[in-house]
Amino acid sequence: MPSGRATYAALAICAALAAPATASAAATDKSSAGGVVFVETPRIGKVVCVKRCAAGKRVQGGSLVRLSGRSLGDVSAAVFHGSDGDADDVRTTRVRSLGTRRARARVPKKAVSGPISLVTAAEVSSPPSQPLAILPPLPGDVLAGADHVFPVRGKFRFGGSAGRFGAGRGGRSHHGHDVFARCGTPMVAARGGSVQMEGYHGLAGYYLVIDGEDTATDYVYMHLAERSPFRRGDSVATGQRIGSVGDTGNASGCHLHFELWSGPGYYEGGRPFDPFPALRSWARADAARRAARS
Ligand SMILES: [Zn+2]
Q: What is the CATH architecture of 39-135?
């Protein structure tokens, strides 16, 4: 009989590894070797970003992560599971064992947030890890290389006169242009750059300010459905997803409230200017790109 203390210690280890209750070993039939070889199932505990991380050690495509766990001696591949279903699964062999308790892996560019499994050379897979938050992947070929793109990626309509720049807002003036779309419609950076501010404000809701790359202009996005995964100081690519259309803060109806600010920038001495001509021209350019591809 194990002592109570030993049992407690064993339970604590299981909890620390966050491993679901599955068999601890998998049998692999190596008939050529004339018998059954037991290959221990690898298990993943913690995952930590060590190189090419975003601010705050967060993980993005291309980051190097260190995984700790057990039975990691033979791992040679990793599967980034993303969300439920295998449509967004990404497998990589850029994995290296650093002994039985540690391994490292390069996060594939297309990997999205979700659990990871490590796989041994004999194709024994670990149970999925705790979900790993990964910043949104860089845009694919549709948007790659564009100078600017339209920030709402789905069906939209421009707001009427009340949604225009300069419309009255109870003694204040509307500093942006409203673009209406269903809540949850993907929202991308019209122009890449570095995140200057983000967070929550009573009027703006979840918002994000991007200091546009190679421009003096700041790009402002408000009423996001939830907080953007990007933080102050992060780099964002043009067309990279920054969030979803929502109605947080003081918003009636799901929409993006979009502002453009002249240099030196948003509440840094710049001034807001009418973003409607730019929005309209980006929407036209996107439609032309789509037509050219079909
Ligand atoms: Zn607005």
A: Sandwich (2.60)
Residue 168 structure tokens: 């009255």
pLDDT digits (tens, 9 = 90+) for 216-243: 999 999 999 999 999 999 999 999 999 9
Rounded to the nearest angstrom, the distance between the alpha carbon of 75 and the centre of ligand 1 is 51
Closest CA to 19 of 96, 100, 115, 94: 115
Stronger pLDDT, 183 or 146, i.e. the higher one: 183
Measured in angstroms, how far is the CA atom of residue 135 from the centroid of ligand 1? 27
Q: Which residues belong to CATH 2.70.70.10 in the chain?
A: 157-293
> In angstroms, what is the span from residue 64 Cα to ligand 1's centroid?
40
CA–centroid distance, residue 222 to ligand 1 (Å)? 8
Q: Are 127 and 117 in contact (CB under 8 A)?
A: yes
Q: How far is the CA of 128 from the centre of ligand 1 (A)?
A: 42
- Considering the segment(s) 157-293 as one domain, its CATH architecture is Distorted Sandwich (2.70)
Query: Residues 155-206: pLDDT tens digits?
Result: 999 988 889 999 988 888 999 999 999 999 999 999 999 999 999 999 999 9
Within the chain, all domains assigned CATH 2.60.40.10 are found at 39-135
* CA–centroid distance, residue 261 to ligand 1 (Å): 14
What is the 142 CA–ligand 1 centroid distance (Å)? 28
Residue-wise burial string across 102-122, b where 16 or more C-beta atoms lie within 10 A, e elsewhere: bbbbbbbeebbbbbbbbbbee
CB 208 within 8 A of CB 192: no
- Ligand 1 centre and the CA of 163: distance in Å? 6
